[in-house]
Write a structure and sequence with these properties.
The protein has 413 residues and is of the alpha/beta class. The protein folds into two domains: 222 residues, Glycogen Phosphorylase B (Rossmann fold); 176 residues, Rossmann fold, CATH 3.40.50. Helices cover 44% and strands 15% of the residues. Helix 15 links the parallel strand 13 and strand 14. Helix 5 packs parallel to helix 6, helix 12 packs parallel to helix 13 and helix 12 crosses helix 17.
């Protein structure tokens, strides 16, 4: 079997890691997997372990490259496709969005999806890859899904939507118009699929849950690296995420730290990652005088030693899809504390693998404080996690069935 993955670009984060895990697993089963990138980035080192992976260049990648060659070519492309006013609107929204409310973010996302829609409708390239691949898979929502649906011919087309559709604020009219050409719309958890079904019931028949695939051996191998910053006497927590406040609740994390510090608790909470709100979080840390408690490590090419060394992985997001880092922590034997996002209770076995708390600041503060005071509560969880082999995470059969064209068995009648 030959599969082509389509992505806007490779960037550090859960999207890229989940793609790397899947490609590695497919390669180990004799599947040829290639990658088509709309943009080239500095994070392509993430692909280094995928020896036989080929990055494809064709008329589609060349069209994107021409548009982004200079500010002038970008401007002319926007004028030609009618996107110029939409882009100005997006620029205004970027400078006026209030970080802690979801409504302006939904307006931003709507503008972005409309921009993607107009861009794809105005493209000149149409590719026929039906003779080259058994299946073409868009790994990202919006732009990549639209390109695959409207500009690529293939025997089989699968488009992924990773986050919770409603909570993330996707603009359903654009998706309704632009995803008609997909054979399968894939979700990594059943609650995420249900969210999409409520928003776009007419596309339910195309929807399918395909669980994430993880490389257990790779995660264990990489966990043996250095994490010297965590060699300390205090209780240690770690969060690995993209530093984006609207979903990852960075402001709340800072307030939680300040609250626990004022209660006299001794702990260190390490944040690994980068993103658009890194400076915002740095300002919160300075303003609340918690630099000894909330430590920003920035990006780490290998976060697994930090996850394994930590007493607890914390993901207190406002909303999530099915975050990859939670399953990675479980594989490494590290208990987790997560907020009650859509798939939380299907991802974390309460009291055995970790704790699921109400998505409210007071509830999170209460549970974190209790754990810091009574860390022995985590001992049984760590033992239970470490005893598992996690073979279920390496199963890519659902993905292969979907690629072959018989994968809609879990769509409701």
């Amino acid at each position: 079997m030959k599969v082509l993955f389509l992505s806007s670009g490779v960037r550090v984060g859960g999207f890229a890691k989940s793609l790397v895990y899947l490609i590695e697993t497919l390669q180990s089963r004799g599947v040829q997997a290639d990658l088509l990138l709309l943009r080239r980035t500095d994070d392509e080192w993430l692909l280094d372990g995928l020896g036989s992976l080929e990055i494809i260049e064709n008329a589609l990648t060349r069209e994107f490259a021409r548009e982004e060659r200079s500010n002038l070519t970008k401007f002319l492309a926007m004028v030609r496709t009618g996107r110029i006013w939409n882009r100005l609107w997006m620029a205004v929204l970027k400078n006026t969005v209030y970080r802690r409310t979801g409504v302006p973010r939904r307006v931003q996302l709507r503008a972005s999806q409309l921009d993607d829609e107009r861009r794809v409708r105005g493209m000149r390239t149409v590719l026929d890859l039906s003779e080259d691949y058994d299946c073409v898979v868009s790994w990202e929502e919006s732009l990549c899904n639209y390109v695959l649906s409207a500009r690529i011919g293939a025997r089989r087309k699968i488009g992924y939507i990773h986050p919770d559709y409603i909570q993330a604020g996707f603009y359903s009219p654009s998706d309704r118009r632009m995803m008609y050409g997909l054979d399968v719309i894939a979700f990594v958890s059943e609650p995420n699929r249900e969210s999409f079904r409520r928003a776009l019931p007419e596309l339910t028949a195309k929807s399918l849950t395909i669980p994430n695939v993880l490389s257990v051996s790779m995660i264990h191998r990489l966990s043996h690296g250095s994490a010297a910053e965590m060699d300390c006497a205090e209780f240690t927590m770690v969060t690995v995420c993209r530093l984006q406040n609207t979903s990852k609740a960075l402001d709340r994390a800072a307030r939680l730290c300040a609250r626990m510090k004022s209660d006299g608790l001794r702990f260190k909470w390490f944040f690994i990652g980068s993103g658009p709100d890194a400076a915002f979080l740095e300002n919160q840390v300075r303003r609340l005088n918690i630099s000894n408690e909330l430590i920003l490590l920035g990006e780490r090419k290998n976060p697994y030693p930090y996850i394994q060394k930590a007493h607890l992985l914390v993901l207190q997001s406002y909303y999530e899809g099915r975050p990859l880092v939670v399953d990675e922590a479980k594989i490494l034997g590290t208990p987790v504390l997560v907020t009650d996002y859509a798939s939380a209770r299907t991802q974390v076995l309460e009291g055995v693998e970790g704790l699921v708390v109400a998505n409210e600041e007071a509830a999170i503060a209460r549970e974190l404080s209790r754990i810091v005071r009574e860390p022995q509560r985590l001992d049984g969880m760590r033992d239970a996690l470490s005893a598992r082999t996690w073979e279920e995470f390496t199963d890519c059969s659902a993905f292969l069935v979907a690629c072959r064209g018989s994968g809609l068995s879990n769509a409701p009648g």
